[in-house]
Design brief:
L-histidine binds at residues 88-90, 118, 132, 136, 311, 315-316. By secondary structure, this protein is an alpha+beta fold. It folds into two domains: 22-51 and 86-186 and 235-377, Bira Bifunctional Protein, Domain 2 (BirA Bifunctional Protein, domain 2), CATH 3.30.930.10; 391-503, Rossmann fold (3-Layer(aba) Sandwich). The chain is built from 18 helices and 18 strands. The chain has helices at 22-41, 90-99, 144-159, 174-184, 192-202, 205-217, 236-246, 248-253, 257-262, 265-270, 278-295, 369-377, 401-413, 428-437, 448-453, 461-470, 474-479, 492-503; strands at residues 45-46, 52-54, 74-76, 82-85, 108-117, 129-138, 167-173, 220-222, 228-230, 303-305, 319-330, 336-347, 362-368, 391-393, 418-420, 442-445, 455-460, 484-488. The strands form four sheets. Strands 1-5-6-13-12-11-7-10 form an eight-stranded mixed beta sheet. The chain has a five-stranded mixed beta sheet with strand order 15-14-16-17-18. Strand 8 and strand 9 (228-230) form a beta hairpin.
């Protein structure tokens, strides 16, 4: 009787995660460096926190739950304490500041970049692991800190190549939204769960539109897959009041300049609240932020007060911000795509204070790195320089491996990316195919005749591809010469560098 063959493991990736190749990693690395420079220009300094925190320190989940893993990935340590992968970069910062409060200069200005994790249902563009890049000011109660964050967000997007007019930093205030909820009289101030349900519904305005938000504020909404999201249970009359307020800034933007001067947005907002209400305080803070950013030269096309901005996380206590891309592009199938929000943040005066006896004011901004990187890829010019790979040294004689390795070392010492072919060298054609797949700008060839003469052959793959594309028949191909030339071994670095410079391929400086 034949024995059953062992079953091979199936290579598969968990849903909501992604592998990332060299092109994406390279563009992300360059993007992170640009963001870092802007953040440091504003006086922020680097900080790194661990991926794992005590679950109760995340500020979102109750420590007495049997398994506090709704929204986060959690596990129990050997001392029976619950640990979780960080949900964002803000809660770990709050823990760090509280733990080191007395030795930190305040206001404490820091930036952090890293992976965060969400234990949520994955979907198109919705991942369980993604990267954020945050900047926060802790210990500054003035809204000038909020205004500065908004200005830095605008400067960051422009430094990354987003043109003015292709983005807007939208600003609102949680106090204003709390005032709206108080004014409708159907959401008690101590009914936290219901208030959060309403805020999360409003936060979906850009995604689902007015009708979708109306459903989420009411009985609920069923999506295209059939999944049903329970609504907040607000009456239709109260929903009309909320939606009317959310539309204020949009309606105001449609007014003529003369009408706007007679009915300023801030006056229209203030009309919703009593003079001593929380909402009125929020409107006053928005007025001040508006004054500060305009005085610094940031117009409404860059930073704008928008009544529809919410931000979904519940720890925000004051001004909230949303960085939105406004340009539209076409995807691979020619369909219009608008990226919308690529970052956001706000004031969270209660988060650090959970660890201390006194309140600690804080405000910050977070960029969604992966989403912004995807958007930036659409802004690249069609004739942008390709992302070339390393120079490849082909192996003609296996017993000369040490000599080929010396050629590679010579190029690397000169700051030129290079590698020796490490596969089976028997088939020379496969080596050239490998170089093509690596998008190499050129290959270096040396057989026994060249070695005896102290020479190498350099084949220009970029020029060769251009010539091949221009050839129309076999006769022309036979009469043409590939872009290949000989040079002395001593000239190798100079000739390769000359080739790279000719094609605009970047290369580094010499090592050491």
């Amino acid at each position: 009787m034949a024995k059953d063959k062992p079953t091979k493991l199936k290579a598969r990736m968990p849903r909501g995660l992604a592998d990332r190749g060299p092109a994406e990693l390279g563009s992300t690395r360059a993007m992170l460096e640009t963001i870092r420079k802007v953040y440091e220009l504003y006086g922020f300094e680097a900080l790194e926190t661990p991926f794992i925190e005590y679950t109760d320190a995340l500020g979102k989940f109750l420590p007495d739950q049997d398994r506090p893993n709704e929204g986060v990935f959690s596990f129990q340590d050997d001392d029976e304490q619950w640990l979780s992968l960080r949900y964002d970069l803000t809660a770990p910062l709050a823990r760090h500041v509280a733990e080191n409060f007395d030795r930190l200069a305040k206001p404490f200005r820091s930036y952090r970049a890293g992976w965060v994790f969400r234990n949520e249902k994955p979907g198109p563009g919705r991942f369980r692991q993604f990267m954020q890049f945050d900047a926060d000011t802790v210990g500054a109660p003035t809204v000038a800190a909020d205004a500065e964050i908004c200005m830095m967000a605008a400067d960051t997007l422009e430094a990354l190549g987003v043109k003015r007019g292709d983005y807007v930093i939208k600003v609102n205030n949680r106090k204003v939204l709390d005032g709206v909820l108080g004014s409708i009289g159907q959401v008690a101030s101590d009914d936290i769960a219901r208030r959060l349900s309403v805020l999360r519904a409003i936060d979906k305005l850009d995604k689902f539109g007015i009708e979708g938000v109306r459903q989420l504020l009411g009985e609920g909404r069923r999506d295209e897959s059939g999944d049903f999201t329970k609504g907040s249970g607000i009456s239709e009359k109260r929903i009309d009041g909320i939606l009317s307020f959310l539309s204020l800034s949009e309606n105001c933007s449609k007014m003529s300049p003369e009408q706007q001067s007679r009915h300023p947005l801030f006056d229209l907002m203030a009309d919703y609240f009593e003079a001593d209400s929380v909402g009125a305080e929020g409107v006053a803070e928005l007025r001040e932020i508006n004054t500060l950013v305009r005085a610094a030269g940031y117009g409404a096309e860059r930073i704008s007060v928008e009544t529809s901005v919410v931000r979904g996380l519940e720890y925000y206590t004051g001004p909230v911000f949303e960085a939105e891309l406004t340009f539209e592009v076409k995807d691979e199938k020619g369909r219009p795509v608008r990226f919308g929000s690529v970052g956001g943040g706000g004031r969270y005066d209660g988060l650090v204070g959970r660890f201390r006896s006194e309140p600690v004011p804080a405000t910050g901004f977070s960029i969604g790195v992966s989403r912004l990187a995807s958007a930036l890829s659409y802004l690249k010019k069609a004739d942008a320089a390709p992302d070339y790979g390393p120079v490849v040294i082909v192996v003609m004689d296996r017993d000369q491996t040490a000599h080929y390795m010396g050629l590679v070392a010579t190029l690397r010492a000169a700051g030129i990316r290079a590698e020796m072919y490490l596969g089976n060298p028997k088939n020379l054609g496969n080596q050239f195919k490998y170089a093509d797949r690596r998008n190499s700008p050129c290959v270096v060839i040396q057989g026994s005749d060249e070695r005896a003469a102290g020479q190498v052959q350099i084949k220009d793959l970029i020029e060769g591809a251009k010539a091949a594309a221009a050839i129309t028949d076999n006769a022309e191909w036979r009469e043409s010469r590939p872009a290949q030339f000989a040079c002395g071994e001593a000239e190798l670095v100079a000739k390769v560098r000359e080739l790279l410079d000719h094609h605009g391929v970047p290369h580094g400086a010499a090592l050491g």
